[in-house]
Specification:
about 170 residues; 5 helices
């Protein structure tokens, strides 16, 4: 089936990207560069509760493939935006939600604390709003990708919405 072949190709590409990241020392090691060179744009999304949160979008609005990309324990930073741009270059529409409400850190002691301070109900609301945003293109096939804290979110959204999310890649 053609859809299955595309999904397998998507899975292979995502898995290769993550294996490459592991080989060079982790997700956060691929963040060098000038923030002004980012290709996507920062936006504000609204949840079903009426609350808002920051997000980053990259890629064509008409792309037939989409990725919900979830940041790691360090938060919504330039590194995750660069990953969104990388996937967008491969033909995906990518959305990254700030699941930590602006909190981020490179300090190991704080990185462990931030995810514990986040309300899971609000995280779920942000994830659902991000999914809704990507579903604006009829027939778009979606994948969820995440590492660290984001790995749990990628897995949860794929289990909660199996009709929409065909592949989950977690690290």
């Amino acid at each position: 089936m053609r859809i299955l072949e595309i999904e397998e190709a998507t899975l292979r590409y995502l898995a290769l990207c993550l294996m490459w990241v592991i080989a060079i020392g982790g997700v956060d090691s691929v963040v060098a560069g000038d923030e002004s060179s980012l290709q996507g744009e920062d936006i504000i999304l609204k949840t079903a509760y009426g609350t808002t949160f920051d997000a980053y979008i990259s890629g064509s609005k008409t792309a037939d493939k989409g990725i919900l990309l979830f940041h790691g324990d360090g938060g919504f930073d330039e590194g995750v935006r660069r990953w969104a741009d990388r996937f967008a270059e491969q033909g995906y529409r990518v959305v990254v939600a700030d699941l930590f409400d602006g909190r981020r850190s490179n300090e190991r002691e704080f990185i462990k604390l931030i995810p514990r301070q986040i309300d899971p109900v609000w995280v779920d609301a942000n994830v659902d709003a991000t999914l809704s945003y990507l579903l604006d293109q009829p027939g778009r096939r979606l994948s969820a990708v995440g590492w660290g804290f984001g790995a749990e979110q990628a897995l949860r959204v794929s289990l909660k919405h199996p009709d929409y999310i065909s592949v989950a890649v977690v690290y």
